[in-house]
Recover the amino acids of this structure.
């Protein structure tokens, strides 16, 4: 036995050990990556220094000196470039968030319509999808902006609806709500109504599970959500006034204005993305085997309940991951705003601010980091939702 | 179009990151000689300053400055490659080395000269910011523009002056900033904005592009100083000198009465100033690393300052702009160049 051990071949050299070799290669790859990053950083510093270009993020606190057409937070030409960043970011988020909501609604409707048994509705949905997903988005933005909204009348010839709503080439003007003291009560009552509805829904579900007795949740919820705040509104003496837009001088003043740049961008993003979402929804529904529907019918469930309880929960599992992609695309596509003068992050920050300060690297780096962050946050949220609706495997 | 633009900006930023040795003293002239042409950044379409016709031939005062530099370096005013740039792209394109010289109605300001790493080589056109408005609105002065919607080009000094002017006069306005001057002009025509603001020379140029130029009027108010000139990068003094003195030489030539037609005759002149300029006497070209008769070539192929002005924006052009501030100092204007000696 001992003789046998002694006759073992000598220990192989360490570079022949696959584990050690893997470690060495990983270390080499790491060193190469760090060296590459360092070279780029060092080169940039060197080039900037030689060209005499100031660098750093100090410019964010200096005054911008220019105005912006749409600002959701207080902003003037005396505000800082940092404030420009927030204004621009909020403009991007506004159009993206509205776009996501509207595209989802429209996409689901078109997607279901595509599967309709009504020949006309199904074909109309098909034409919609094939038209809008095959025309480049930029062209669609130009179409809405230059062809459709540019055809609106001049301010003095505005189309008006009851002297409260006005449409002209400068935008859509709506009455703006002016909240009076006491409106907080209405909001508080609305909040408690929401809580009440949630509790009610939970109780109704538990009761149905236990006894099989359904409860008309939808009707009760609507009554609560509308009735309670309205009662509070009346009791507090209608603490809400409307400020109507009014033609003074060159333009309408007062009220809320939806500028055509925003409207055309939102229209184009919604309609374009909805075409893709519709296809995703159709695929998701078709992925649920028809046997599920038949089984549901034979159990006596109505077609509405079949859709809500059997098909949609299973279809959502297929729909969510590609839907996330569409949300990401929509957000990133909103940067085409720069083409029509909507002050989004790319136009107002990576464009105008970059140009006025000359801080190309800083501005582009910040902008890229922001889009990356938004995209990761959307992914994160959608992944969480996906896990929530995913099939629980046992 | 716009994706291409954001791509350009990102690429330019990336090339700033990556370019190992974009510029060193004297490097631009060597690189230009090696390429065999000068990379010149011009406007994306402004009649009188830089405008490409249907055949793609560029003309304009800014274009002629580049042609003069090419004539000085190569003895051939055609050795050029033009890059049309929007206002937003222009400075980054120069900083990153995409172009050798920027001749694109760019205003000389302190921050561009210092923090942005650029050198202005002189003034090709003394301009000021004004307003173009539809006659129908009956506005006679910029002071009556309270509450107006104003179209302006993004990333310009114009955008800053506009805010300053309205703030100083306690007036309100709504800005719409487009990337391209053409988009602003179209928006004015469609009535998206009440008034278009830009340098006055540009307003005249924009006006002749409108469908009904007579319907529009440039208001008399001038709200800023806009000295426009060619720009080069910091850090290459030799190249800076060549571009600067090409411009000076054209102004000096006008003052001395040398033009593209009489330049050969003038070589026989007895005036020592003229002899020195045209390289008949002395070796002034060598100091720049250029041919001794480089000024004569520039004048012969491109013309003196007065010729360039009249041909592109003055009497001989559809713009019909008066010399005004751009006349020679001897005729009551501001154009004054140091002597060649």
């Amino acid at each position: 036995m001992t003789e046998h051990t002694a006759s073992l071949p000598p220990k192989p050299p360490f570079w022949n050990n696959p584990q050690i070799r893997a470690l060495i290669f990983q270390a080499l790859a790491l060193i190469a990556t760090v060296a590459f990053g360092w070279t780029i950083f060092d080169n940039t510093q060197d080039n900037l220094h030689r060209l005499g270009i100031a660098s750093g993020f100090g410019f964010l606190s200096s005054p911008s000196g220019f105005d912006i057409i749409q600002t959701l937070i207080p902003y003037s030409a005396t505000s800082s470039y940092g404030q420009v960043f927030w204004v621009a970011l909020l403009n991007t988020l506004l159009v993206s968030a509205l776009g996501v909501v509207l595209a989802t609604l429209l996409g689901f409707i078109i997607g279901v319509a595509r599967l309709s048994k009504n020949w006309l509705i199904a074909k109309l949905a098909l034409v919609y999808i094939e038209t809008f997903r095959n025309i480049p988005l930029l062209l669609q933005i130009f179409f809405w902006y230059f062809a459709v909204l540019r055809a609106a009348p001049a301010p003095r010839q505005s189309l008006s609806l009851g002297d409260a709503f006005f449409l002209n080439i400068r935008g859509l003007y709506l009455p703006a709500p002016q909240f009076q003291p006491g409106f907080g009560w209405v909001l508080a009552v609305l909040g408690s109504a929401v809580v009440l509805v949630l509790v009610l829904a939970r109780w109704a579900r538990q009761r149905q599970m236990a006894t099989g007795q359904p409860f008309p949740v939808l009707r009760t919820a609507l009554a609560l959500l509308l009735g309670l705040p309205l009662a509070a509104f009346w009791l507090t003496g209608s603490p809400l006034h409307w400020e109507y837009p009014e033609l003074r001088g060159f333009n309408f003043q007062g009220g809320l204005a939806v500028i055509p740049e925003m409207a055309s961008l939102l229209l184009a993003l919604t309609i374009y993305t909805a075409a893709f979402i519709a296809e995703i929804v159709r695929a998701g529904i078709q992925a649920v085997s028809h046997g599920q529907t038949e089984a549901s019918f034979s159990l006596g469930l109505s077609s509405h309940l079949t859709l809500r309880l059997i098909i949609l929960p299973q279809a959502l599992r297929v729909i969510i991951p590609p839907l996330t992609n569409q949300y990401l695309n929509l957000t990133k596509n909103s940067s085409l705003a720069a083409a029509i003068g909507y002050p989004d992050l790319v136009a107002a920050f990576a464009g105008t601010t970059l140009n006025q300060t000359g801080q190309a690297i800083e501005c582009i780096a910040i902008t890229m980091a922001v889009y990356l962050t938004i995209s990761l946050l959307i992914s994160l949220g959608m992944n969480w939702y996906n896990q929530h609706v995913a099939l629980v495997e046992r | 179009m716009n994706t291409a633009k954001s791509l350009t900006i990102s690429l330019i930023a990336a090339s700033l990151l990556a370019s190992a040795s974009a510029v060193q003293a004297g490097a631009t002239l060597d690189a230009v000689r090696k390429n065999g042409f000068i990379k010149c950044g011009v406007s994306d379409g402004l009649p009188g300053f830089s405008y490409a016709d249907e055949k793609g031939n560029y003309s304009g005062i800014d274009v002629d400055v580049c042609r003069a530099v090419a004539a000085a370096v190569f003895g051939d005013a055609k050795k050029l490659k033009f890059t049309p740039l929007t206002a937003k792209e222009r400075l980054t394109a120069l900083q990153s080395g995409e172009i050798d010289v920027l001749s694109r109605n760019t205003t000389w300001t302190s921050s561009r000269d210092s923090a942005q790493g650029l050198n202005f080589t002189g003034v090709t056109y003394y301009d000021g910011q004004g307003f173009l408005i539809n006659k129908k609105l009956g506005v006679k002065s910029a002071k009556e523009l309270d509450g107006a919607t104003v179209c302006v080009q993004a990333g310009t000094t114009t955008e800053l002056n506009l805010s300053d002017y309205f703030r100083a006069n306690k007036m309100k306005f709504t800005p719409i900033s487009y990337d391209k001057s053409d988009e602003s002009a179209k928006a004015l025509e469609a009535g998206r904005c009440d008034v278009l603001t830009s340098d006055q020379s540009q307003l005249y140029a924009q006006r002749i592009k409108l469908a009904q130029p007579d319907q529009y009027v440039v208001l008399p108010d001038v709200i800023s100083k806009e000295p426009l000139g060619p720009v080069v990068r910091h850090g290459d003094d030799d190249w800076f000198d060549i571009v600067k003195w090409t411009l000076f030489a054209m102004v000096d030539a006008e003052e001395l009465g040398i033009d593209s037609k009489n330049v050969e005759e003038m070589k026989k002149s007895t005036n020592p100033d003229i002899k020195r300029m045209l390289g008949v006497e002395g070796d002034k070209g060598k100091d720049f690393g250029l041919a001794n008769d480089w000024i004569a070539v520039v004048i012969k192929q491109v013309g003196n300052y007065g010729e360039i002005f009249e041909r592109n924006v003055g009497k001989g052009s559809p713009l019909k702009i008066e010399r005004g501030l751009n006349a020679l100092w001897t005729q009551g204007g501001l154009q004054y160049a140091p002597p060649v000696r």
Observations:
- DSSP finds 14 helices and 13 strands in chain B.
- Residues 208 and 319 of chain B are 7 Å apart (CA to CA).
- Chain B touches chain A through 61 residues (CB under 8 Å).
